[in-house]
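Quick entry between incubations.
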Amino acid sequence: MRNVFIAVGGSGTKVAEALVRLLAIGFPTHRENNTLTSAGHSLQIWRLDPDLNSGAAVSLGNCLKDYQELQGLLNGGQHGAGVASSRWAMDIDTRVRHLDPLQLPQAASSDNVVKNLGGILDSRYGTIKSSLPFLAPFYEKKDLEVEIDRGFYQKPFIGAAVMAVFAESLRDENSPGGKACSLTAFQNVSTNFFLCGSLHGGTGACGVPVMGRYLGSLKRNNQTWDWRVGACLLTPYCVPPQPPFGALREGYPTPQQIDDLAKEHGDKPAFKGLPIEDKRKLVEQILLGFYAEPEAMEARARQGLAYYRDHSADYFDELYLAGKPEPDKLKVWSNGGKSQSNPLNSAEVVAALGALNFFSRAGTGNPESYVIAASTPDLDSEKMSLRHLPRYSAGEDEIEPEAVFLSSAVMHHLVTHQIPWEIPAHGWPKEIKRMREVYQDNENRKIDDWKRFSGATALLAKFLDTTIDPNPEHTVGWNGEDAFKIRPYLSNDPHSLKEITAKTAKKLMSKEAKGELELGNSSIRVSTFEFGDWCPDTADFTRGEYLRLVWSKLFARAQKRLRAEGATF
Amino acid sequence: MLAILFQSSSFLRMFVDSCDEEGCEDTALNWVIAIIVIAIICALLMLAFKWLRKYTAINIVQKAWSRGQTVVLILVGLIPVVIVLLIVWYTTRNFFNYVGVGGLLKGIVMSWLLYVLFMFTGHLVSPWRREMI
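Done. Structure below.
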């Protein structure tokens, strides 16, 4: 099954990062040979954003590098160029397709060159006269002149026009956008397209409906292609702080005003590292009101929802909404570019789970009706736990995110610390006989696997920890309890090892474990003797296959200690 | 053959310092028998210790013994061999008087060799041979 995640704007890009993290951690999408897995399916990430070098894009790129390294350590050596592939998790094409909505086809060399709304809608090439009279009723002069190569400043009325031109250009395979998408490769191929962006932002609010409509209409015209188009719309879940100074009430700023403010605020994070000319541009943008206004977010989201209801929802097979009743307050103000590097938000993880639900083709119920799933009333969205995350379905199985985290963490511990790697395999005891048989005549393979498992589990630990780490540099919206409880499973600390080893110790006269390994409301009871029996059926398994088998067995043993609190998609 | 070797006076006399008096060969034979019995008992005890450690191991890592661990176990078993031999030698008047210090040292070496041989054999005839080879 092919999956395409279309990240629209900064929020969509953060959700793409969350999705990659969840897949790396082991979240499954289907059952294959009686094993829950995401391996065997593929994912492409498209990024629709004029801000090519945003902090979110950099963060996604780093995350994909780690994913590629993880998959490389776990595969059997064969994978396509640029595709992070192993039997542990989904194949991801690590080359993010950047769909720049400002890269538009040119009818002449002067067409669509200037990167502002005026430059696109009023480019006046050849004998084409000015279209300003048509634009004047809708836009002010400053709207047409502001540079839009770092986003649309949460002004959908600017972005929508650009996105509409861009979507139209996709019909031509030779246009920059058409080349990047190369949709002909998806004809007659079962594909899940999932779009994600904010309802209240600039790029997301206009990009998701425009792209959704484009893909939806293609699908309608080609019913045999087995395409599904879904989207997750993010309602306000975090609010930026106010800019360092306010906008002018009316008129344009003077050069002196701009210079003074650029000098005064030049060292602040949003300005730091920018050349003086860019600092001046940023000051001018703020003075003219081109920045995200936290107070208007809710109203914009409401308008966005109304738009979907009236004009856009029909193009989607499924629409998910994710947000927070009380948005988290970001600490650093930025107006786009590399300085806009927000930590991963728990709402973005919820949206990524929506994508997984969609990719698993589970559906949310009756397609003709709304499904109003919601979090529990006592949820503090600023301090979430894994048990608050929504469950989703993969085939017949209900996937509890907390149990997935626990299974991966326990797997990390078992593979790292409960296999006698230091001892030649032929000397392994009968309790790990099947693995012994695989390695006993191939000590070099064992040593190589040991080295690569160590590298892979270290990366897995990084993914597990930094996805829920309450450190505001990494994430926002977690209460930290789960991160605190999961760390011993990922640790080499002798005290933690002793404690976990005691719980995985077998009872005197049986193989059953003495204790339970816990995380939040989930627990797993497994002894290392039971773990020792687990081995793929054929000897030529890859490291990824082995990890997936262990994970799947652990997940099957995961129990709920208390009543589930999270919602279900 | 072994019995003949044990009973041959030249072999037995190796383990006593002075064999001028009558009946010293009986003392030497008793000393050699003590050497063999002590080596067997110590080997059995060390093998039983290993079995117990493995049986009560709470996880696979504890259950898996490396060659190094096994060698250490065998070497540690040499100590009780010496101690028991010393006690038997010192508390038996004939051994102390006729076997002497030279015979004791030869007995220790002999007992060690036998103990190591029994330990190796014990491993080789059990599934633990994987840990040795």
